[in-house]
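sorry for the late reply, my laptop died twice this morning and i had to redo everyting from scratch. anyway the thing you sent over, i finally got around to it. pasting the sequence first so we're on the same page, its 499 residues, then the predicted structure underneath. double check i copied it right bc i was rushing
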Amino acid sequence: MSETPERLHMSGIVKRFPGTVALDGVELSVRPGEVHCLLGENGAGKSTLMKVLAGSYQPDEGTILLDGQPYAPATPHAGLAAGIAVIYQELDLLPDLTVAQNLLLGRAPRLGPFVRRGQRAKLARAALDRVGANFPVSARVGTLPIAAQQLTAIAKALTADARVIVMDEPSATLGESELEAVFAVIRSLTAEGRSVIFISHRMDEVMDIGDRATVLRDGRAVGVYDLASTRPDELVAAMIGEAGGELVGATDRAAPRGEPLLSVERVHVPGLLDVRDLDVRPGEVVGLAGLGGAGRTTLLRALFGDLKAQVTATLGGRPLKVASPAAAVRAGLALVPESRKEQGLMLGLSVSRNAAISALGKPPWLLPGRAGQRLTKPALADLGVKASGPGQLVGQLSGGNQQKVVLAKWITRGGIRVLLLDEPTRGLDVGAKADLYRQVRHLADQGVAVLLASSELNELTANADRIQVLYEGRNVAHFDPRVSPENVIAHTVITGAAP
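ok and here's the structure:
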Protein backbone atom coordinates (compact mmCIF):
# COMPACT_ATOMS: atom_id res chain seq x y z
CA MET A 1 0.00 0.00 0.00
CA SER A 2 2.92 2.37 0.68
CA GLU A 3 3.74 2.45 -3.05
CA THR A 4 0.20 3.40 -4.07
CA PRO A 5 0.34 6.82 -5.79
CA GLU A 6 -1.48 9.66 -4.08
CA ARG A 7 -4.66 11.03 -5.54
CA LEU A 8 -4.59 14.07 -3.24
CA HIS A 9 -1.83 15.57 -1.12
CA MET A 10 -2.41 18.66 1.01
CA SER A 11 0.77 19.89 2.67
CA GLY A 12 1.35 22.55 5.31
CA ILE A 13 -2.14 24.05 4.97
CA VAL A 14 -2.60 27.18 7.10
CA LYS A 15 -5.83 29.18 7.32
CA ARG A 16 -6.24 32.16 9.64
CA PHE A 17 -9.38 34.05 10.59
CA PRO A 18 -9.52 37.16 12.80
CA GLY A 19 -8.60 36.06 16.29
CA THR A 20 -7.97 32.40 15.47
CA VAL A 21 -5.85 29.98 13.45
CA ALA A 22 -8.30 27.44 12.06
CA LEU A 23 -5.68 25.31 10.29
CA ASP A 24 -2.07 25.15 11.45
CA GLY A 25 0.09 23.27 8.96
CA VAL A 26 -2.33 20.43 8.19
CA GLU A 27 -1.21 17.43 6.13
CA LEU A 28 -3.68 15.15 4.33
CA SER A 29 -3.01 12.47 1.73
CA VAL A 30 -5.67 10.35 0.01
CA ARG A 31 -5.10 7.40 -2.32
CA PRO A 32 -7.11 6.39 -5.41
CA GLY A 33 -9.93 3.99 -4.59
CA GLU A 34 -9.74 4.81 -0.89
CA VAL A 35 -12.33 5.84 1.67
CA HIS A 36 -10.33 8.21 3.84
CA CYS A 37 -12.11 9.28 7.03
CA LEU A 38 -11.49 12.75 8.45
CA LEU A 39 -12.11 12.83 12.19
CA GLY A 40 -12.01 15.43 14.93
CA GLU A 41 -14.10 17.38 17.39
CA ASN A 42 -16.22 20.32 16.30
CA GLY A 43 -13.89 23.22 15.65
CA ALA A 44 -10.92 20.91 14.94
CA GLY A 45 -10.73 22.25 11.36
CA LYS A 46 -12.39 19.55 9.27
CA SER A 47 -14.90 21.74 7.45
CA THR A 48 -12.36 24.54 6.97
CA LEU A 49 -9.89 22.10 5.41
CA MET A 50 -12.55 20.81 3.03
CA LYS A 51 -13.52 24.36 2.05
CA VAL A 52 -9.87 24.99 1.18
CA LEU A 53 -9.92 21.83 -0.92
CA ALA A 54 -13.14 22.89 -2.64
CA GLY A 55 -11.93 26.41 -3.43
CA SER A 56 -14.33 28.17 -1.05
CA TYR A 57 -11.38 29.38 1.06
CA GLN A 58 -7.89 30.28 -0.07
CA PRO A 59 -5.11 28.95 2.19
CA ASP A 60 -2.69 31.44 3.73
CA GLU A 61 0.11 28.89 3.37
CA GLY A 62 0.56 25.41 1.95
CA THR A 63 0.29 23.49 -1.31
CA ILE A 64 -2.11 20.98 -2.83
CA LEU A 65 -1.35 18.30 -5.44
CA LEU A 66 -4.13 16.49 -7.31
CA ASP A 67 -2.88 13.37 -9.11
CA GLY A 68 0.61 14.82 -8.82
CA GLN A 69 -0.26 18.17 -10.42
CA PRO A 70 -0.47 21.53 -8.60
CA TYR A 71 -4.04 22.38 -7.68
CA ALA A 72 -5.13 25.83 -6.47
CA PRO A 73 -8.83 26.46 -7.15
CA ALA A 74 -9.90 30.10 -6.92
CA THR A 75 -13.61 29.22 -6.62
CA PRO A 76 -15.81 26.20 -5.85
CA HIS A 77 -16.72 26.11 -9.55
CA ALA A 78 -13.03 25.72 -10.39
CA GLY A 79 -12.74 22.97 -7.80
CA LEU A 80 -15.68 21.09 -9.27
CA ALA A 81 -14.25 21.47 -12.77
CA ALA A 82 -10.99 19.95 -11.52
CA GLY A 83 -12.84 16.94 -10.13
CA ILE A 84 -13.52 17.84 -6.48
CA ALA A 85 -17.16 17.42 -5.37
CA VAL A 86 -18.12 18.36 -1.81
CA ILE A 87 -21.37 17.42 -0.07
CA TYR A 88 -21.56 19.71 2.93
CA GLN A 89 -23.38 18.91 6.18
CA GLU A 90 -25.45 22.07 5.69
CA LEU A 91 -26.79 21.32 2.21
CA ASP A 92 -26.23 23.83 -0.59
CA LEU A 93 -29.33 22.93 -2.59
CA LEU A 94 -31.76 25.48 -4.03
CA PRO A 95 -35.12 24.77 -2.34
CA ASP A 96 -37.31 26.43 -4.98
CA LEU A 97 -35.90 24.33 -7.84
CA THR A 98 -36.81 20.74 -8.67
CA VAL A 99 -34.61 17.79 -7.88
CA ALA A 100 -33.65 17.46 -11.56
CA GLN A 101 -32.80 21.17 -11.81
CA ASN A 102 -30.60 20.96 -8.71
CA LEU A 103 -28.78 17.83 -9.87
CA LEU A 104 -27.77 19.28 -13.23
CA LEU A 105 -27.65 22.99 -12.46
CA GLY A 106 -25.35 24.60 -15.03
CA ARG A 107 -24.74 21.23 -16.71
CA ALA A 108 -28.16 20.34 -18.14
CA PRO A 109 -28.22 18.76 -21.63
CA ARG A 110 -29.24 21.33 -24.25
CA LEU A 111 -30.38 21.63 -27.80
CA GLY A 112 -29.17 25.06 -28.74
CA PRO A 113 -30.46 27.48 -26.08
CA PHE A 114 -33.13 25.06 -24.85
CA VAL A 115 -32.79 22.57 -21.99
CA ARG A 116 -33.63 19.01 -23.01
CA ARG A 117 -35.95 18.38 -20.09
CA GLY A 118 -36.62 14.75 -20.86
CA GLN A 119 -32.92 13.94 -21.04
CA ARG A 120 -32.27 15.92 -17.87
CA ALA A 121 -35.00 14.00 -16.06
CA LYS A 122 -33.52 10.71 -17.28
CA LEU A 123 -30.05 11.60 -16.02
CA ALA A 124 -31.46 12.80 -12.71
CA ARG A 125 -33.50 9.62 -12.30
CA ALA A 126 -30.40 7.48 -12.87
CA ALA A 127 -28.48 9.42 -10.21
CA LEU A 128 -31.30 9.08 -7.68
CA ASP A 129 -31.67 5.37 -8.40
CA ARG A 130 -27.98 4.93 -7.69
CA VAL A 131 -28.41 6.24 -4.14
CA GLY A 132 -31.61 4.29 -3.57
CA ALA A 133 -33.94 7.32 -3.63
CA ASN A 134 -37.50 6.79 -4.83
CA PHE A 135 -38.93 10.33 -4.79
CA PRO A 136 -39.74 12.04 -8.13
CA VAL A 137 -37.17 14.20 -9.93
CA SER A 138 -39.94 16.75 -10.48
CA ALA A 139 -40.37 17.42 -6.74
CA ARG A 140 -39.30 20.79 -5.41
CA VAL A 141 -36.35 20.24 -3.09
CA GLY A 142 -37.79 22.50 -0.40
CA THR A 143 -40.80 20.21 -0.01
CA LEU A 144 -38.70 17.11 0.67
CA PRO A 145 -37.80 15.75 4.12
CA ILE A 146 -34.24 16.42 5.26
CA ALA A 147 -33.19 12.82 4.59
CA ALA A 148 -34.41 13.08 0.98
CA GLN A 149 -32.56 16.37 0.56
CA GLN A 150 -29.38 14.65 1.79
CA LEU A 151 -29.79 11.91 -0.81
CA THR A 152 -30.36 14.60 -3.46
CA ALA A 153 -27.05 16.25 -2.51
CA ILE A 154 -25.22 12.94 -2.78
CA ALA A 155 -26.82 12.23 -6.15
CA LYS A 156 -25.78 15.71 -7.32
CA ALA A 157 -22.14 14.86 -6.66
CA LEU A 158 -22.52 11.70 -8.73
CA THR A 159 -23.62 13.68 -11.79
CA ALA A 160 -20.20 15.37 -11.87
CA ASP A 161 -17.19 13.38 -13.05
CA ALA A 162 -15.42 13.80 -9.72
CA ARG A 163 -12.09 12.25 -8.81
CA VAL A 164 -12.50 13.12 -5.13
CA ILE A 165 -15.91 13.18 -3.43
CA VAL A 166 -16.11 14.70 0.05
CA MET A 167 -19.04 13.61 2.24
CA ASP A 168 -19.47 15.77 5.36
CA GLU A 169 -21.70 13.88 7.82
CA PRO A 170 -23.79 12.26 5.04
CA SER A 171 -25.58 9.93 7.44
CA ALA A 172 -26.72 12.51 9.97
CA THR A 173 -30.30 12.53 8.66
CA LEU A 174 -30.53 9.09 7.05
CA GLY A 175 -32.34 5.98 8.18
CA GLU A 176 -30.73 2.55 8.22
CA SER A 177 -31.86 1.49 4.72
CA GLU A 178 -30.90 4.88 3.25
CA LEU A 179 -27.47 4.67 4.89
CA GLU A 180 -26.87 1.21 3.45
CA ALA A 181 -27.69 2.58 -0.01
CA VAL A 182 -25.18 5.39 0.48
CA PHE A 183 -22.51 2.96 1.63
CA ALA A 184 -23.15 0.83 -1.45
CA VAL A 185 -22.64 3.97 -3.58
CA ILE A 186 -19.38 4.74 -1.77
CA ARG A 187 -18.09 1.22 -2.39
CA SER A 188 -19.00 1.41 -6.08
CA LEU A 189 -17.23 4.76 -6.40
CA THR A 190 -14.02 3.47 -4.86
CA ALA A 191 -14.20 0.34 -7.01
CA GLU A 192 -14.07 2.71 -10.01
CA GLY A 193 -10.87 4.24 -8.61
CA ARG A 194 -12.49 7.40 -7.23
CA SER A 195 -11.49 8.65 -3.78
CA VAL A 196 -13.95 9.44 -1.01
CA ILE A 197 -13.22 11.64 1.99
CA PHE A 198 -15.76 10.67 4.64
CA ILE A 199 -16.41 12.92 7.65
CA SER A 200 -18.40 11.39 10.48
CA HIS A 201 -18.62 11.36 14.26
CA ARG A 202 -20.12 7.87 14.33
CA MET A 203 -17.36 5.39 15.06
CA ASP A 204 -19.34 2.39 13.82
CA GLU A 205 -19.69 4.02 10.38
CA VAL A 206 -16.02 4.95 10.28
CA MET A 207 -14.92 1.41 11.09
CA ASP A 208 -17.43 -0.05 8.59
CA ILE A 209 -16.69 2.08 5.53
CA GLY A 210 -13.22 3.54 6.05
CA ASP A 211 -9.78 2.36 4.92
CA ARG A 212 -7.65 4.98 6.68
CA ALA A 213 -8.36 7.97 8.91
CA THR A 214 -6.68 11.29 9.61
CA VAL A 215 -7.47 12.85 12.98
CA LEU A 216 -7.48 16.63 13.40
CA ARG A 217 -7.24 18.36 16.76
CA ASP A 218 -7.06 22.13 17.28
CA GLY A 219 -6.30 22.77 13.63
CA ARG A 220 -3.49 20.20 13.35
CA ALA A 221 -3.30 16.66 12.00
CA VAL A 222 -2.33 14.50 14.98
CA GLY A 223 -2.25 11.09 13.32
CA VAL A 224 -3.06 8.86 10.35
CA TYR A 225 -4.52 5.45 11.15
CA ASP A 226 -5.03 2.20 9.25
CA LEU A 227 -8.55 1.37 10.36
CA ALA A 228 -8.16 -2.38 9.91
CA SER A 229 -5.70 -2.38 12.82
CA THR A 230 -7.10 0.47 14.95
CA ARG A 231 -9.65 0.35 17.77
CA PRO A 232 -12.41 2.99 17.99
CA ASP A 233 -11.27 4.07 21.46
CA GLU A 234 -7.83 4.89 20.03
CA LEU A 235 -9.44 7.24 17.52
CA VAL A 236 -11.55 8.86 20.24
CA ALA A 237 -8.47 9.33 22.42
CA ALA A 238 -6.67 11.03 19.52
CA MET A 239 -9.65 13.30 18.86
CA ILE A 240 -10.07 14.54 22.43
CA GLY A 241 -6.44 14.32 23.50
CA GLU A 242 -7.10 11.93 26.35
CA ALA A 243 -6.77 8.22 26.92
CA GLY A 244 -10.15 6.57 26.77
CA GLY A 245 -13.33 8.62 26.73
CA GLU A 246 -16.88 7.55 25.99
CA LEU A 247 -19.17 8.57 23.16
CA VAL A 248 -21.93 9.53 25.57
CA GLY A 249 -22.42 9.89 29.29
CA ALA A 250 -24.09 7.21 31.35
CA THR A 251 -27.29 7.63 33.32
CA ASP A 252 -26.24 7.24 36.95
CA ARG A 253 -29.24 8.93 38.55
CA ALA A 254 -32.01 6.98 40.23
CA ALA A 255 -35.08 6.74 38.03
CA PRO A 256 -37.41 9.69 38.86
CA ARG A 257 -40.64 8.82 40.64
CA GLY A 258 -43.85 10.66 41.37
CA GLU A 259 -46.69 12.08 39.34
CA PRO A 260 -46.11 13.02 35.68
CA LEU A 261 -45.41 16.65 34.83
CA LEU A 262 -46.41 16.16 31.18
CA SER A 263 -49.20 13.67 30.59
CA VAL A 264 -50.19 13.04 26.97
CA GLU A 265 -53.53 11.35 26.41
CA ARG A 266 -53.34 11.62 22.63
CA VAL A 267 -51.51 13.51 19.88
CA HIS A 268 -53.17 12.96 16.52
CA VAL A 269 -52.24 14.12 13.04
CA PRO A 270 -54.44 12.33 10.46
CA GLY A 271 -52.41 9.90 8.38
CA LEU A 272 -49.16 10.72 10.21
CA LEU A 273 -49.35 10.35 13.95
CA ASP A 274 -51.45 8.74 16.67
CA VAL A 275 -49.50 8.69 19.93
CA ARG A 276 -51.33 7.82 23.13
CA ASP A 277 -50.63 7.54 26.86
CA LEU A 278 -47.17 9.07 27.10
CA ASP A 279 -46.03 10.56 30.42
CA VAL A 280 -42.88 12.37 31.54
CA ARG A 281 -42.13 13.00 35.21
CA PRO A 282 -40.22 15.99 36.59
CA GLY A 283 -36.51 15.26 36.23
CA GLU A 284 -37.09 12.37 33.85
CA VAL A 285 -35.50 11.89 30.43
CA VAL A 286 -37.81 9.90 28.15
CA GLY A 287 -36.21 8.79 24.90
CA LEU A 288 -38.10 8.53 21.61
CA ALA A 289 -36.70 5.78 19.39
CA GLY A 290 -37.78 4.86 15.88
CA LEU A 291 -36.76 4.64 12.26
CA GLY A 292 -36.83 7.66 9.98
CA GLY A 293 -40.45 8.67 9.44
CA ALA A 294 -41.68 6.93 12.59
CA GLY A 295 -43.17 10.19 13.86
CA ARG A 296 -40.68 11.46 16.45
CA THR A 297 -40.22 14.90 14.86
CA THR A 298 -43.96 15.20 14.17
CA LEU A 299 -44.74 14.44 17.81
CA LEU A 300 -42.34 17.08 19.14
CA ARG A 301 -43.52 19.71 16.67
CA ALA A 302 -47.15 18.98 17.57
CA LEU A 303 -46.44 19.37 21.28
CA PHE A 304 -44.68 22.66 20.54
CA GLY A 305 -47.59 24.00 18.50
CA ASP A 306 -45.54 24.05 15.32
CA LEU A 307 -48.03 22.07 13.21
CA LYS A 308 -51.74 21.50 13.16
CA ALA A 309 -52.58 18.57 15.41
CA GLN A 310 -55.11 17.35 17.93
CA VAL A 311 -53.28 17.51 21.25
CA THR A 312 -54.97 16.24 24.41
CA ALA A 313 -52.52 16.61 27.27
CA THR A 314 -51.96 18.13 30.68
CA LEU A 315 -48.96 19.98 32.07
CA GLY A 316 -48.73 20.04 35.84
CA GLY A 317 -52.29 18.73 36.04
CA ARG A 318 -53.76 21.54 33.91
CA PRO A 319 -54.86 21.26 30.26
CA LEU A 320 -52.02 22.03 27.85
CA LYS A 321 -53.01 24.49 25.13
CA VAL A 322 -50.44 24.79 22.34
CA ALA A 323 -52.14 26.66 19.51
CA SER A 324 -48.77 28.14 18.50
CA PRO A 325 -45.07 27.98 19.43
CA ALA A 326 -45.52 31.25 21.36
CA ALA A 327 -48.24 29.62 23.46
CA ALA A 328 -46.01 26.59 24.06
CA VAL A 329 -43.14 28.82 25.21
CA ARG A 330 -45.45 30.66 27.60
CA ALA A 331 -46.51 27.29 29.03
CA GLY A 332 -42.88 26.39 29.68
CA LEU A 333 -42.03 24.20 26.67
CA ALA A 334 -38.76 24.58 24.77
CA LEU A 335 -37.83 22.90 21.48
CA VAL A 336 -34.36 22.24 20.10
CA PRO A 337 -35.31 21.39 16.48
CA GLU A 338 -33.73 18.91 14.11
CA SER A 339 -32.80 21.61 11.59
CA ARG A 340 -30.90 24.19 13.63
CA LYS A 341 -29.94 26.21 10.54
CA GLU A 342 -33.50 26.77 9.31
CA GLN A 343 -35.49 26.68 12.55
CA GLY A 344 -33.24 27.31 15.52
CA LEU A 345 -30.92 30.21 14.71
CA MET A 346 -30.51 33.54 12.94
CA LEU A 347 -27.22 32.90 11.18
CA GLY A 348 -26.51 36.56 10.43
CA LEU A 349 -26.61 37.56 14.11
CA SER A 350 -24.01 37.13 16.82
CA VAL A 351 -23.72 34.23 19.23
CA SER A 352 -24.88 36.35 22.17
CA ARG A 353 -27.87 37.84 20.35
CA ASN A 354 -29.07 34.38 19.31
CA ALA A 355 -28.70 33.07 22.84
CA ALA A 356 -30.42 36.10 24.39
CA ILE A 357 -33.39 36.54 22.07
CA SER A 358 -35.84 34.31 23.98
CA ALA A 359 -34.86 35.72 27.35
CA LEU A 360 -35.09 39.41 26.43
CA GLY A 361 -38.19 39.08 24.26
CA LYS A 362 -37.25 41.81 21.79
CA PRO A 363 -36.59 41.85 18.04
CA PRO A 364 -32.97 40.78 17.52
CA TRP A 365 -31.91 44.12 16.06
CA LEU A 366 -33.04 45.85 19.27
CA LEU A 367 -31.21 43.55 21.68
CA PRO A 368 -28.54 45.40 23.66
CA GLY A 369 -25.18 43.82 22.85
CA ARG A 370 -23.49 44.06 26.25
CA ALA A 371 -26.60 43.07 28.19
CA GLY A 372 -27.01 40.04 25.95
CA GLN A 373 -23.39 39.06 26.45
CA ARG A 374 -23.65 39.27 30.25
CA LEU A 375 -26.91 37.33 30.26
CA THR A 376 -25.77 34.51 28.00
CA LYS A 377 -22.19 34.08 29.24
CA PRO A 378 -22.94 31.38 31.88
CA ALA A 379 -24.95 29.13 29.54
CA LEU A 380 -22.48 29.47 26.68
CA ALA A 381 -19.60 28.67 29.02
CA ASP A 382 -21.35 25.67 30.60
CA LEU A 383 -22.06 24.20 27.17
CA GLY A 384 -18.48 24.77 26.01
CA VAL A 385 -19.40 26.87 22.96
CA LYS A 386 -16.23 27.50 20.95
CA ALA A 387 -16.24 30.96 19.37
CA SER A 388 -13.75 33.79 18.94
CA GLY A 389 -16.07 35.87 21.14
CA PRO A 390 -19.73 36.55 21.91
CA GLY A 391 -19.90 38.94 18.96
CA GLN A 392 -18.94 36.31 16.37
CA LEU A 393 -21.71 35.54 13.87
CA VAL A 394 -23.36 32.26 14.79
CA GLY A 395 -23.32 31.27 11.10
CA GLN A 396 -19.52 31.14 11.28
CA LEU A 397 -19.52 28.47 13.99
CA SER A 398 -19.22 24.75 13.40
CA GLY A 399 -22.47 22.82 13.26
CA GLY A 400 -22.00 21.37 16.72
CA ASN A 401 -21.37 24.75 18.29
CA GLN A 402 -24.46 26.12 16.55
CA GLN A 403 -26.50 23.36 18.18
CA LYS A 404 -25.13 24.34 21.57
CA VAL A 405 -26.22 27.94 20.99
CA VAL A 406 -29.79 26.73 20.31
CA LEU A 407 -29.83 25.00 23.69
CA ALA A 408 -28.17 28.01 25.35
CA LYS A 409 -31.05 30.15 24.09
CA TRP A 410 -33.53 28.19 26.22
CA ILE A 411 -31.25 27.82 29.22
CA THR A 412 -30.71 31.58 29.23
CA ARG A 413 -34.44 32.22 29.11
CA GLY A 414 -35.11 29.97 32.08
CA GLY A 415 -38.55 28.82 33.17
CA ILE A 416 -38.31 25.60 31.15
CA ARG A 417 -40.70 22.92 32.38
CA VAL A 418 -40.50 20.54 29.41
CA LEU A 419 -37.50 20.35 27.07
CA LEU A 420 -38.12 18.80 23.64
CA LEU A 421 -34.92 17.64 21.94
CA ASP A 422 -35.05 16.53 18.29
CA GLU A 423 -31.80 14.85 17.19
CA PRO A 424 -29.82 17.22 19.44
CA THR A 425 -26.43 15.63 18.74
CA ARG A 426 -26.70 15.51 14.94
CA GLY A 427 -23.25 16.50 13.68
CA LEU A 428 -21.73 16.85 17.15
CA ASP A 429 -18.36 15.38 18.01
CA VAL A 430 -17.56 13.16 20.98
CA GLY A 431 -16.76 15.97 23.39
CA ALA A 432 -19.69 18.13 22.28
CA LYS A 433 -22.12 15.25 22.80
CA ALA A 434 -20.83 14.75 26.33
CA ASP A 435 -21.17 18.50 27.05
CA LEU A 436 -24.74 18.57 25.76
CA TYR A 437 -25.93 15.53 27.66
CA ARG A 438 -24.23 16.76 30.81
CA GLN A 439 -26.25 19.97 30.53
CA VAL A 440 -29.46 18.05 29.77
CA ARG A 441 -28.97 15.94 32.89
CA HIS A 442 -28.30 19.11 34.88
CA LEU A 443 -31.62 20.54 33.71
CA ALA A 444 -33.36 17.26 34.55
CA ASP A 445 -31.83 17.36 38.03
CA GLN A 446 -33.56 20.73 38.45
CA GLY A 447 -36.95 19.15 37.70
CA VAL A 448 -37.22 19.73 33.93
CA ALA A 449 -39.04 16.95 32.06
CA VAL A 450 -37.17 15.95 28.90
CA LEU A 451 -38.39 14.28 25.71
CA LEU A 452 -35.36 13.18 23.68
CA ALA A 453 -35.74 12.00 20.07
CA SER A 454 -32.61 10.42 18.63
CA SER A 455 -31.59 8.00 15.90
CA GLU A 456 -28.59 7.01 18.03
CA LEU A 457 -29.91 4.09 20.09
CA ASN A 458 -26.74 3.90 22.17
CA GLU A 459 -27.26 7.53 23.21
CA LEU A 460 -30.84 6.80 24.25
CA THR A 461 -29.92 3.72 26.28
CA ALA A 462 -27.11 5.65 27.99
CA ASN A 463 -29.02 8.86 28.75
CA ALA A 464 -32.75 8.10 28.97
CA ASP A 465 -34.60 6.86 32.03
CA ARG A 466 -37.24 5.26 29.81
CA ILE A 467 -37.50 4.71 26.06
CA GLN A 468 -40.70 4.92 24.01
CA VAL A 469 -40.54 3.26 20.58
CA LEU A 470 -42.49 4.89 17.75
CA TYR A 471 -43.36 2.89 14.65
CA GLU A 472 -45.38 4.23 11.72
CA GLY A 473 -46.71 7.10 13.81
CA ARG A 474 -47.66 5.11 16.92
CA ASN A 475 -45.91 4.41 20.19
CA VAL A 476 -45.75 0.62 20.18
CA ALA A 477 -43.56 -0.24 23.18
CA HIS A 478 -41.64 1.20 26.10
CA PHE A 479 -38.48 0.00 27.84
CA ASP A 480 -36.35 0.69 30.87
CA PRO A 481 -32.84 0.76 29.38
CA ARG A 482 -31.40 -0.28 32.75
CA VAL A 483 -32.97 -3.73 32.39
CA SER A 484 -33.63 -4.13 28.64
CA PRO A 485 -30.72 -5.10 26.38
CA GLU A 486 -30.05 -2.73 23.51
CA ASN A 487 -30.63 -5.48 20.94
CA VAL A 488 -34.18 -6.01 22.28
CA ILE A 489 -34.95 -2.30 21.88
CA ALA A 490 -33.33 -2.27 18.42
CA HIS A 491 -35.49 -5.22 17.35
CA THR A 492 -38.61 -3.30 18.32
CA VAL A 493 -37.41 -0.13 16.58
CA ILE A 494 -36.98 -2.04 13.31
CA THR A 495 -39.96 -4.38 13.43
CA GLY A 496 -42.47 -2.38 15.46
CA ALA A 497 -43.19 -5.38 17.70
CA ALA A 498 -41.58 -6.17 21.05
CA PRO A 499 -40.32 -9.76 21.25
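Residues 262-495 form a domain with the Rossmann fold fold (CATH 3.40.50.300).
thats about all i looked at so far, will dig more tmrw
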